[in-house]
Amino acid sequence: MSLLQSIFGGTDDEKVETASQDVFNTTFEVPKPTPAPPIITTTKRAAESVTPAEEVQAAANEGDNIRNTKEDDEERTIFVGNLPVTITRKSLAALFADCGKVSSTRIRSVATTGVQLPASSAGNQRLVKKVCTHTNKIDACIKNSVHAYVVFQNVASVAVALETKNNLLVEDHNIRVDTAQPTIDPQRSVFVGNLPYASQEETLRMHFINSMPSIKNASANSATSIQGVRIVRDKETFQCRGFAYVLFADKSLVSEALQKVHATTYMKKELRVLVCGKRFKAKQGKYSAAENAKRRKLPPKERVSTSTGALKRILTKQIVNDAKPKTSDKTDKKRKRGDAKKFAPGKAATHKAGVSKRQASSAKQDKKEKVLQKRMTKGMGKNKRA
After folding, report:
1. Helix (H) or strand (E) holding 205
2. I need a labelling partner for 176 at 20 to 30 A (CA). Which of 133, 305, 318, 374 fits?
3. Which of the residue ranges 221-230, 241-250, 376-385 would you say has the lowest mean pLDDT?
4. Rounded Cα distance, 170 and 159, in Å
C-alpha cells in the first residue's frame, strides 16, 4: 500500500483527485478590515463655534480669576517675624490654630552654614538652603530668628491673629504679627544707624526698653509699647547692613527715643537714632511730582513754609536779604569791559588800562628779550663796549 492510500484510503488516483477537489472547494472566512476614522479638517474654533471676541473675553476672565485668587490669598495671609530658629511648619500651624483653620505655612530668611553638594548640583543655592534646613545646619550667630507666612482659610482669622498673637513671647522671642503688606508709619517709627554686624532683633528691643524710662517703668505695657523691630539684612548672607527701624505703639514715644536712646552704647557701638520723615522710601512726600514742579516756579514767600529742616534756614536767609536796603546805583558801580580796574590801597596795577593781561605779559616778555640782546651786543661791566 502506498503512502497516499494509507492516508486517504482507496486507490491513489481516486483519493488524490478527491483531496484536490476538497482543498479548492473549502471556503475560509477572512476578517473584514475595520474602517479608518474620518479625518476632520475643521479647526477647533469652527468645531466649537467660538468667535474671536469670545476668546478674548475668556482670556480676560481667566486672568481676572488668577488675579482675584492672588488677591484673595494675600488677604488671608499674615506675616510673622522674629520667630525662633527652632520653629517648624507644624508647630507654626499649631501656634495659630486657635485663630482659625490654617491652609498653609512657609518659613523664610533662614541663615545657614552651607553644605557641599555633588558636582552635578554645584552652584544650586536653593538646594543648599533646603539641605541645610532639613539637616539643622543653621548659623544662629548671624541671625537667631526667622520669619514666616501663615495662610488661613478664612479672612476673619487674620484680624483675630493680629489682635491676639502680636508681641506674643515664643521661646524668649517677641514675635511680630502683621499683614502680608507690612505696616509702615513714619510718625511712629525711628531710624537706628551705626549698628554692629552681630545685632539681633531681640537684644535691640531690650536696649530700647532699658533706655526709655516710660517703657521700662511700665512693666505691663513694655512688650506692647514696641510693636516691631526690623533689622535690614543682606538678601544672600543675612548679615546686618548696619541700620534698622523700630515701630512704636504711640508716636509720643518717638521723641523720648530721640532723647534717651540716641548716642547710647549698644554692643560697643554708639547708636544714631533719627526720625523717619520724608526720606522714608516707602512713603511718598506731601506733594506729588506735578505739584512740586509748580511750587519751584513760585516765589519763596508764596510757598508753603515749614517749621523744621534746611528749608527754614533758607527762607530765613532770604527774608533777611530782602529786608536789607537796596541801592539804586548798584548797576552803575559795576565795572564795564575795558575800564580801568580799581585796586586796594597799597597795590598797583600789573598792566596799563585798556590792555588785557595777555597783551601786557607779551609786552613784558618782548622787553626782556630786547634787554638781553643789548647786553649780548654791547657786553656787561668792564667788557661793555661804547
Report:
1. helix 201-211
2. 133
3. 376-385
4. 20
pTM: 0.54
User: In angstroms, what CA-CA distances link 299 with 185, 303, 319, 320?
Assistant: 32, 7, 12, 15
Burial of 122 (0-12, 13-18, 19+ CB in 10 A): exposed
Q: What is the DSSP string of 148-177?
A: EEEEESSTHHHHHHHHHSTT-BSSS-B-EE
Query: Band of the pLDDT at 55, cuts 50, 70, 90?
Result: low
- Residue 315, φ and ψ in degrees, nearest 5: -65, -40
> Distance (Å, rounded) from C-alpha 95 to C-alpha 86?
13
* Nearest of 125, 136, 123, 76 to residue 101 by alpha carbon: 76
Q: Is the Cβ–Cβ distance between 74 and 180 less than 8 Å? A: yes
DSSP assignment of 211-258: H-HHHHH-TTTHHHHEEEEEEEE-TTT--EEEEEEEEESSTHHHHHHH
For the record, the C-alpha cell of 124 comes out as 544650586
Helix (H, G, I), strand (E, B) or coil at 117: coil
- Can you name the residues that pair with 74 across neighbouring β-strands? none
**Contact status, residue 215 vs residue 237, Cβ threshold 8 Å:** no
